Every structure is written in C-alpha cells, then in structure tokens.
Amino acid sequence: METRQIHDKFKIRIAGIAAGSFTFSMDCDKAFFEVSGLSILHDGVIHVRIKMEKMEKMLNFAFQFEGKATANCDRCLEPVTLKIDFNTTLIVTLVNNKNGKHKANENDDIWFIDENSYELDFFHYIYESLLLALPQKIVHPDDENGNSACNPEMLEKLTQCSPSHNQEIDPRWETLKKLKLK
Ligand SMILES: [Zn+2]
To answer: Which helix (H) or strand (E) holds 95?
Structure first.
C-alpha cells in the first residue's frame, strides 16, 4: 500500500457535515508504523474508535485506543508486546482564517483550523498520542514469580559489550523532537 493511501485512512471529512454525533474507527497496523518513519513502535494492531460531535464552530473528538504494539525492550533489546488502552480528547475550533493555515498546535489538545477545511488528518495526532501513552521505560514485565522475562543471553551479551552504563535518554523524546521540527 502506498504512503498516501495509508495516510488517507486517517482523514475525516468535515466539510458539509451536519451538526450531530458521529463515530469512526481507524486501525493502526504494521503499515502504519512503517510509514510513520518512527522506530519505537514497529508493529502492532491498534484499534482507534473516534466519537465526533459536530457543532457550528467546533468539533469535539473523543479517541479510544485499544490494542497491542511491539517495541524493543530497553533492557534486553528484544521485542516486547505492549498493551495499549487509553483515551484522549481533542477540540477543533473552526476559525475564519483567510490564509486557511492549519495553525495548530500550540496546544495539542486544541486545534484551530480554517472553517472551510475539507477534512482533518489524524495520522500524526494518533502517532503522537501513542508515543505519549507509552511507559517511561519499556521492559519485559516480570513473570508470576517476580523474575525478569528478559532474554538472559541478550542481557549477558549486552553487559559484556557496554563499557559503562549508557546515558539514559528517553528515545521517545528524541523522536518527538524530530517530529515537531518537521
Ligand atoms: Zn527485555
């Protein structure tokens, strides 16, 4: 599937839509994670349910994220499956803006967009929401006996390879920074 086609799946048309409540659903799958070009989540199936409430000059959105995604364990670097389950809300205010510029996102929870916009693109919003919802540290959870479920061979190799502890910079912030600079 082409990049543009994948992006298109995350668009919602708002032009010519009557006031009222609507629901949509979008799925983030492997293609989504590949196209996003960000490497923390590299696979998964995440179902996003969206409730849209359309008013004359405003749209309220409620997002429900549910599913699983794969990331690499910070400790042993092997893949770990993360359970995804969280909600977000977004307010989109329609403004009379001659330039029609999408002048978001000083505040990520409120967008100001031109009232003549045809559609909204949630691709980046969804990806950023997923990144922000991830735990600070991604590691294999302990098993029922409290033992680490990390790959012991990998851990041993890593200990041998690293001369000292690596500085711990949360890779997600690096990714977000890059995203914001675009
Ligand atoms: Zn691990």
So the answer is: strand 79-95
Cα–ligand 1 centroid distance for 11 (angstroms): 36
By the 8 A CB rule, do 116 and 107 touch?
no
pLDDT in tens, 20-53: 999 999 999 988 988 887 678 888 999 999 999 9
SS3 83: strand
Helix axis angle for 171-181 and 123-133, nearest 10°, is 160
Which residues are near ligand 1, the ion (C-beta closer than 5 Å)? 73, 75-76, 140, 150
3-state secondary structure of 117: coil
**In the block, which residue shows the tokens 């307010």?**
91
Query: Is the torsion defined by CA of 36, 42, 48, 53 positive or negative?
Result: negative
Reading the block at residue 24, the tokens are 């949509």
Q: Could you read off the pLDDT of 44-56 as tens digits, one per residue?
A: 999 999 999 999 9
CB atoms within 10 A of CB 90: 21
Q: What is the whole-number distance in angstroms between the Cα of residue 148 and the centre of ligand 1?
A: 8
Ligand 1 center–CA 81 separation, angstroms: 10
Q: What are residue 13's DSSP bridge partners?
A: 119
The whole-model pTM stands at 0.78
Q: Ligand 1 centroid vs 126 CA: distance in angstroms?
A: 26
